[in-house]
Write a structure and sequence with these properties.
Layout: H1 3-18, H2 22-29, H3 40-54, H4 59-66, H5 70-79
Helix pairs in contact: 1-2, 1-3, 3-4, 4-5
Length: about 90
């Protein structure tokens, strides 16, 4: 992981932890995306796992932390294979 990518991931993770507006944070770190790109699916999966952990597996709370409607969180949990047990 490059330093810029690491910083971007850390900023996004802090946003989840602090319940900040992820769109605002992503906008601020977008300029730090390395030329080789990023694995957005892996970043999304990690954010969902962190939000679920912070919300103590309460999907309504996790969805709110991520700025998603609950139905979209359910779909993303399923897509990432996190809909079984505690993920």
């Amino acid at each position: 992981m490059t330093t810029d990518l690491g910083e971007a991931c850390a900023a996004i993770a802090r946003a989840v932890a602090d319940s900040l507006d992820l769109g605002e944070v992503i906008g601020r770190v977008a300029a730090t995306i390395p030329p080789e790109g990023v694995n957005l699916e892996a970043i999304e999966r990690d954010l969902i796992q962190k939000a679920m952990a912070q919300a103590q597996n309460n999907k309504s709370v996790a969805a709110k932390l991520l700025g998603l409607p609950r139905g979209q969180l359910y779909s993303r949990l399923k897509r990432h294979g996190l809909d079984r047990g505690k993920g």
